[in-house]
Structures are given as structure tokens and as C-alpha cells.
């Protein structure tokens, strides 16, 4: 190829690259403004005392972190977050697995209909779900209390979202229902990776259904179990919108997860404390980072197991 032809080709490649960067530029700018800048800004604000209105920001060093680590309300929010995760993850993973077994059976009729029905809540706006659930669990006119009264299971309406003993468990139930379809899809995808020839060969050898489950299904699903559990664990740490619309963190801080605590410190208190809220956000971000490291280790373990 001659030198002029090479030069023309080089100019065409260069123009294509410039157009590619031009189309990427809006995304890069928006990502920087709305994602990178707030993250970097949070780290800076966590070292200052600032209410968000005054121009003066007083540098306080690590005082915000010291206050957060000695704040009983912060630790209560952290405990509620962990409790929510510890309860929601196994319920969501195990119930999704059982239903996926049923819906993956070749003898199950209307599989597409049921799969769509269970997945519909996933595509519904979480804030709308939270508002609707307030009416559904209303102690005086909600259908849940109406059904309990009709069945004679209670003599008076139960204030599911207004009682500190039931509020958190009610939100856990709604959260599991809202995102159940997502876990179900994960399990269905995992089950469909198992070759049907293995089940056919086991049936010819006289293996019963429990035996096939114990010797084929469960061992082959072990890598997927790790991934699905970690994905579910991570999703339970982002429950802000549902919790805010259903309970707002109450009653008596019974459902105040860390995200709600940060929101109240930064925006909902009479005197906003953006510096303190940023310090709590950084601490919670470090916790999520550790969870992400566990997820990475789990994914690497799955990859090694599949290559072995």
C-alpha cells in the first residue's frame, strides 16, 4: 500500500475516533457532574462543619467521624440496616429458588404467565409501591386489616406501619415481594444451564426426584448460589425509597436505615448538617465497599470452580 493511501486511511480512523469521543462527551460530562463530583465532594464535606446555606465552611478534621462513631442513632440505623439484610436475603433467595424449581418444571402449565406475573412488581416504581402499600396496610380501611377482621384473626385493625414491633417486618415483606421476580429470574437462568441429559440419564438409572435434586441440581447450582446471594445482599443496602415512602424511618427509629439517617441529617432536620451527613455517608460507603470486595472474591471463586 502506498504512503498516500496509508495517510488517507489514518485520517479516516482519526476522524472516526474524534466522532466517537464527541458522542461520548455528553455522557462523560454528566457522569462527572452527577456522580464523580458528589462522591469527591462528600469526602471534602465530611471534614467540615457546614449547614449547606452559609458560605463559610469550618474545617473540623475528623470530628464528624468521631461524632458518628459515638452517635447511638447512627449505630441504631446501622443495626436496622444489618437486621433488614439478614432477614430479607435468605427469605428472598430461598423462596425464589423454590418457586424457580416449580416454574422450571416441564410439567408446569402457564409458566410464561406466572413468570410475567411475578416479575411485574420489579418494573413498578418503588416510590409508587411504597405509597400504595400505605393504603393497603392502613389500620382502619386497608384491605389487609379488612381480611384479618373478616377471618376473625384479630378484633381490631393492626397498625402494621405505625407499630415499632411490626413496621420493619412489614417493609421486609413488601421489599421481598417487590424484588422477588428479579431473584426468580436469576434462579431460572441458573437452572436452565443444567443439561437435561443429566436428569434423563439419572432417571434411567432409577434415581428418584430427591436424589436428582441432591446429586445433580444442588451441586451444579453452587456457583450460582454464591452470585445470587451476593447480588441480593447488595440490593438490600439500597432500600431508601421504599423505606422513606412507607415509614419515613419511624416509628421511633424502628425502620431508620443508614440511608434514611443520612437523608435526615442532610435535608430533613431543622438545622441541616451536610458535613456530618457526608461523614456518615463515607462510613456507609466504606461498608458497602467491603461488601463489594466479598462479592468480587465470590465471583472469582465461582469462575475458578467453573474452570476446574
Short description:
By secondary structure, this protein is mostly helical. It is 72% helix and 1% strand.
Summary tags:
single chain, 308 residues, mainly alpha, two-stranded antiparallel ribbon, 12 helices, 2 strands, globular
Give the SSE map.
Blueprint: H1 3-45, E1 48-49, E2 58-59, H2 63-69, H3 72-103, H4 111-119, H5 126-136, H6 143-150, H7 167-191, H8 196-204, H9 209-235, H10 240-246, H11 258-268, H12 274-307
Antiparallel strand pairs: 1-2
Helix pairs in contact: 1-12, 2-12, 3-7, 3-9, 3-11, 4-7, 5-10, 7-9, 9-12, 11-12
Give a written overview of the molecule:
It contains twelve helices and two strands, in the order H-E-E-H-H-H-H-H-H-H-H-H-H-H. The protein is mainly α and 308 residues long. The chain has a two-stranded antiparallel sheet. Helix 11 (258-268) runs antiparallel to helix 12.
Amino acid at each position: 500500500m502506498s504512503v498516500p493511501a496509508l495517510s488517507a486511511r489514518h485520517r479516516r480512523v482519526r476522524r472516526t475516533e474524534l466522532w466517537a469521543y464527541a458522542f461520548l462527551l455528553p455522557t462523560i460530562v454528566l457522569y462527572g457532574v452527577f456522580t464523580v463530583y458528589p462522591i469527591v465532594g462528600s469526602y471534602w464535606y465530611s471534614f467540615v462543619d457546614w449547614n449547606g446555606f452559609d458560605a463559610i465552611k469550618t474545617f473540623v478534621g475528623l470530628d464528624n467521624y468521631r461524632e458518628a462513631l459515638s452517635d447511638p442513632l447512627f449505630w441504631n440505623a446501622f443495626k436496622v440496616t444489618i437486621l433488614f439484610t439478614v432477614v430479607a436475603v435468605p427469605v428472598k433467595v430461598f423462596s425464589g429458588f423454590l418457586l424457580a424449581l416449580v416454574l422450571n418444571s416441564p410439567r408446569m402449565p402457564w409458566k410464561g404467565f406466572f413468570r410475567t406475573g411475578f416479575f411485574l412488581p420489579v418494573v413498578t416504581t418503588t416510590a409508587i409501591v411504597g405509597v400504595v402499600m400505605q393504603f393497603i396496610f392502613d389500620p382502619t380501611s386497608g384491605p389487609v386489616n379488612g381480611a384479618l377482621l373478616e377471618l376473625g384473626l384479630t378484633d381490631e385493625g393492626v397498625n402494621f406501619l405505625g407499630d415499632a414491633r411490626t413496621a420493619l417486618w412489614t417493609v421486609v415483606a413488601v421489599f421481598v415481594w417487590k424484588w422477588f421476580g428479579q431473584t426468580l429470574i436469576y434462579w431460572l437462568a441458573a437452572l436452565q444451564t443444567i443439561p437435561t441429559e443429566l436428569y434423563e440419564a439419572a432417571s434411567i438409572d432409577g434415581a428418584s426426584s430427591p436424589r436428582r435434586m441432591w446429586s445433580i441440581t444442588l451441586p451444579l447450582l453452587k456457583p450460582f448460589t454464591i452470585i445470587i446471594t451476593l447480588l441480593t445482599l447488595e440490593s438490600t443496602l439500597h432500600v431508601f425509597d421504599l423505606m422513606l415512602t412507607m415509614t419515613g424511618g419511624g416509628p421511633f427509629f424502628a425502620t431508620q436505615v443508614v440511608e434514611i439517617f443520612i437523608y435526615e441529617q442532610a435535608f430533613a432536620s431543622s438545622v441541616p448538617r451536610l458535613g456530618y451527613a457526608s461523614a456518615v455517608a463515607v462510613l456507609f460507603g466504606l461498608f458497602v465497599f467491603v461488601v463489594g470486595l466479598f462479592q468480587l472474591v465470590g465471583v472469582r471463586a465461582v469462575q475458578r470452580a467453573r474452570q476446574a
